Amino acid sequence: TEELASLTARVNAAATKLSSFKKDTENRKKTAQLQEAGEKITAAEEEVKKLAELVAPLAAEGAEAMSAEEASAICEKSVAQSKTTQASLEEARNFFTSRQKDAKGVPSLAETLKSLQGRITEATAAMAKAKKVSKNH
Questions:
Q1: Other C-beta atoms within 10 Å of 109: how many?
Q2: Which letter does DSSP use for residue 60 in this model?
Q3: What's the rounded Cα separation, in Å, for the pair 59 and 52?
Q4: Which of 10, 49, 65, 127 is the most exposed place for a label (fewest CB within 10 A)?
Q5: How far apart are CA 83 and CA 100, in angstroms?
Q6: Which residue numbers in the chain have pLDDT < 50?
Q7: Residue 61 falls in which region: left (phi positive, over 0), alpha (psi -120 to 50) or beta
Q8: Cα separations in angstroms, 80 against 37, 55, 85, 128
Q9: Helical H segments across the chain, by residue range
Q10: pLDDT, tens digit, 9 for 90 and up, residues 103-112
Q11: Alpha-carbon gap, residue 19 to 106, rounded angstroms
């Protein structure tokens, strides 16, 4: 019976250790997924930046003096870029939302979640601003 008690203690210790490893692994997985969400958001921000650069001539001083052909060409390019940007933002937003649900209850990730949410909001606002500029022409 003493041997059985010894083995039971070892099993319990191993189970505790395994539980700890599983918890640590899950936290590392959530952190890695948030990093991936950050990368997707960065890619979406780059697409927004491309769109903003594309429509910048339409927002510049003297844009009214631009020929109709030039403005039309810029608008056509901006429509295509806008679709790419929208798709990229949607992908980033959807991925982030699912990671946000996964990371609930993990206080150490709360600040990262808040930061990523802010970046998505800023990128969406910048895209809306660029779309508005191209719509005015």
A1: 20
A2: S
A3: 10
A4: 65
A5: 25
A6: none
A7: beta
A8: 24, 12, 9, 15
A9: 2-59, 68-102, 110-135
A10: 887 788 888 8
A11: 17
Q: Looking at residue 66, what DSSP letter applies?
A: S
Measure CA 71 to chain center. 32
CB-neighbour burial class of residue 113 (10 A; exposed 0-12, middle 13-18, buried 19+): middle
Amino acid identity, position 125: A
For residues 100 and 62, what is the distance between their CA atoms, to the nearest angstrom? 45
The single residue listed with the structure tokens 């003096």 is 65
The pLDDT of residue 48 is 94
Give the C-alpha separation, 6 to 108, whole Å: 37
CB 97 within 8 A of CB 121: no
Give the N- to C-terminal CA distance of the chain in Å, as an integer: 87
What confidence tens digit (pLDDT) does each residue in 54-73 have? 888 887 766 677 778 888 88
Contact present, 42 and 96 (Cβ < 8 Å): no
